[in-house]
Amino acid sequence: PTITYVLPDGTEQQMDVPCGQSVMDGSVRNNLPGIVAECGGSCSCATCHVFLEHAPEGAFDDAMTEETDLVEFLDDAAPNSRLSCQLIVSEACEGARVRVSTSNG
Ligand code: FES
User: Fold this and answer.
1) Is the entire prediction scored with pTM above 0.90?
2) pLDDT tens by residue, 74-87
3) Hey, what CATH class is 2-100 in?
């Protein structure tokens, strides 16, 4: 499915991310800037912060406690904040759009 990434410089990149990979994987594996993912996807670093600007119906599961606890402490946290390593891509994600935080380090 195609995911649109709005990068820290405001430009957009569309990436075809295989099902089963995370939105973080889709960024890191394509060398997109802005998602640092220090912990490699184990939901402990919060340097993969994105704003979920558009999610098709049923695209992503709600955040679990581990994720919301981390997001809470981010300076630029917003109601649509998510950790992209926890956003697992499926067919339902076609057309999803995330804006990468400019504060991921
Ligand atoms: Fe570390 Fe997502 S990659 S929390």
Assistant:
1) yes
2) 999 999 999 999 99
3) alpha beta
